[in-house]
Design goal:
The chain has 607 residues and is mainly α. The protein has 3 domains: 293 residues, no CATH class; 139 residues, no CATH class; 104 residues, NAD(P)-binding Rossmann-like Domain (Rossmann fold), CATH 3.40.50. 64% of the residues lie in helices and 6% in strands. The chain is built from 23 helices and 9 strands. Strands 4-3-7-8-9 form a 5-stranded mixed sheet. A hairpin with a 2-residue loop joins strand 5 and strand 6. The termini are far apart.
Length: 607
């Protein structure tokens, strides 16, 4: 607590620097906007861009002035700071040139590499004394990656500036905990500049930062990440673990978009409406909901980075592996959203003959979904096995215990993955997971744990191994593998509850038939119907929820619910409904032009 109090006391002294950057950015942004509108420097709607409004550009100029002026006024100008400031000025000019006169991707890449070389030569780089030949090129590529990541992330109102402010805030916190006050001061200045600009960039945006702003933001965050306390580690994993968590959202978006474009035959350097934020919007979220969702993810990952620096390397590695597995699962879910306008593939002129060899790459592309599931399970089972030992031995693993883990992990992995495959875990569609699927999954995990225990008993007679570890491992595997299988279902339900898209549908009958009809409605990526509630005459059900859908009352409230919820279709989900009920539904629906029908488990019956 004393460290936190001291840290807060010092950070409060950084107020003038942050306020300087905030004030300049806040005051200059509308000035730049007026000038951009007057000179015609505006972003017009384009086919490969998300916005549909004419919006002023070059907001990055106000951010750059705020950052540069506050840095010159408040930060001690040592060699790394001067190098970072010079690099900031150069990438601002590079982005400005690209905003005013489009540069080719290759020209921008070459310029970014040169700027990266300049900043790295000033001392802002990864410190790996044992591998200096790796540290220099890796540092340059890090700068190029983060600059392009924020350039790509600047695809929706308020997204890049907000995520940048969150990331800079966590950089300031990390630096303050390590008492690196210069780094913390630079981070606070960046937070202020982003916050001042965000006031005019928040949805609906009045101005865009453009490449001039995204390059400045990316370069400074990349520099803060390398100037932080973690760069003193001699291990490459420790060097990159915390910065990658802080900047995980832009890095994930860049990698995801690049992979998806390559898989769909698109050029990775061209613009498009295929980013993570765009896919969330296609699923039904509003612009603000999509932006706030990514703000939340960025904040959670930043909090994990704070936890990771307090842990041992192995514990931090386990967190990173689990985070990576979750990001892969989310990426697989978002990849199902159709955002590419591709013509259907032509039927090959020469059919594939029986027995004709198929390449490994073709096989992987045909079964990429299953391959992702196997890789995720591989990561989770490995992490869980190590985590079980950490829990059993209260976070401390001796060299002997680590050797036992290394020796037994290949056997445990092989047995468990074979049991998963034998029980058909890689042949199921987990988007529609039910109780039977959960039971099969628990059986597969249990059999894998039992056979793993027998293998350890047969090979090493349990010498040095703890029986409690196997029990903990079984429980954690159920949670981890089970959680990975319901990610799609949870995302579907979150999207459907947050989205206002889909035809508003009212279900009459909250019994078994009504529940089956609710499950048969289409959710998620291809959402066509949105249930707004149930009506049921059983007063015991009033006010309750079924799979998140409320029971709004009895049939007497039908007319009021139709008007309030603007229902477009009523589904009578009652086996053999009485004629009196059907007449009541008809009297309420037909004058309002609301469609209605009788359904049983999603199958329409003739009335």
């Amino acid at each position: 607590m004393e460290i936190l109090r001291d840290t807060w006391g010092v950070l409060s002294g950084f107020g003038p620097a942050g306020l300087t950057a905030f004030g300049l950015s806040f005051v200059l942004t509308p000035v730049v906007r007026s000038m951009a509108v007057r000179l015609g420097w505006v972003a017009r709607p384009m086919e490969d861009r998300w916005g549909r409004r004419v919006v002023a550009r070059l907001g990055g100029a106000a951010m750059f002035v705020g950052i540069a002026a506050a840095t010159l006024a408040w930060v001690p100008l040592d060699r790394p700071v001067i190098g970072l400031l010079a690099g900031t000025a150069l990438v601002f000019l590079l982005g400005l040139a690209d905003d005013l006169r489009r540069l080719t991707p290759y020209a921008k890449l070459m310029a970014q590499l040169l700027v990266g070389c300049l900043v790295v030569s000033s001392g802002v780089r990864i410190d790996l004394p044992q591998w200096p030949w790796v540290a220099i090129p890796l540092s340059i590529l890090w700068f190029v990656l983060i600059m392009n990541a924020f350039n790509l992330l600047d695809n929706m109102d308020g997204l890049a500036a907000g995520v940048g402010a969150i990331a800079a805030g966590f950089c300031a916190f990390h630096a303050a905990l390590a008492q690196q006050w210069t780094v913390a001061l630079l981070a606070v200045i960046l937070v202020g500049a982003c916050a001042g600009f965000l006031r005019f960039n928040f949805p609906p945006a009045k101005i865009f930062m453009g490449d001039s702003g995204s390059h400045v933001l990316g370069l400074n965050l990349a520099g803060l990440a390398l100037l932080g306390s973690w760069h003193h580690s001699t291990q490459l994993l420790s060097v990159l673990a915390v910065p990658a968590l802080v900047l995980a959202v832009p890095i994930f978006d860049t990698c995801f978009v690049t992979i998806q474009r390559l898989l769909h035959g698109q050029h990775p350097f061209t613009g498009g409406r295929d980013h993570v934020s765009h896919r969330l919007a296609v699923l039904g979220l509003s612009t603000r909901q999509a932006v706030f969702a990514l703000y939340t993810v960025s904040t959670l990952l930043g909090l994990l980075s704070v936890i990771a620096v307090t842990l041992q390397p192995l514990q931090a590695l386990l967190i990173w592996v689990v985070v990576l597995a979750m990001l892969v699962l989310v990426g697989r879910y978002l990849a199902q959203v159709n955002v590419y306008r591709l013509e259907p593939q032509a039927v090959p002129s020469k059919p594939v003959e029986l027995g004709e060899p198929v390449t490994l790459i073709e096989t992987m592309l045909m079964h990429k979904r299953r391959l992702i599931e196997i890789l995720v399970d591989f990561s989770l089972v490995s992490s869980v096995y190590a985590a079980a030992h950490l829990l059993r031995y209260e976070g401390t693993l001796t060299f002997d215990i680590q050797q036992l883990i290394v020796k037994s992990l290949p056997i445990v992995l092989t047995i468990k993955l074979m049991c998963f495959a034998a029980y058909g875990l890689y042949r199921r569609v987990w988007r529609y997971v039910g109780l039977s699927d959960v039971i099969v999954m628990v059986k597969a995990i249990t059999l894998g744990s039992v056979l793993s225990s027998l293998a350890l008993l047969y090979l090493w007679r349990f010498q040095g191994y703890s029986r409690a570890v196997l029990v903990i491992d079984w429980m954690l595997t159920c949670l981890a593998v089970g959680g990975s299988r319901i990610v799609e279902r949870l995302l579907d339900e979150w999207i459907s509850s947050a989205s206002s898209r889909g035809t508003p549908v009212l279900i009459i009958g909250a019994g078994e038939t009504g529940v089956r009809v609710l499950r048969s409605l289409t959710y998620g990526v291809a959402a066509a119907q949105r249930p707004v509630g149930f009506l049921d005459d059983d007063v015991r059900k009033h006010g309750t929820r079924i799979h998140g859908v409320p029971v709004l009352g009895g049939r007497g409230r039908l007319a009021a619910v139709l008007d309030r919820e603007q229902v477009q279709e009523v589904l009578v989900a009652i086996a053999d409904p009485p004629a009196q009920l059907l007449h009541h539904v008809q009297r309420c629906c037909e004058p309002r032009g609301t469609a209605w029908k009788v359904v049983t488990a999603g199958v329409t019956e003739t009335v």
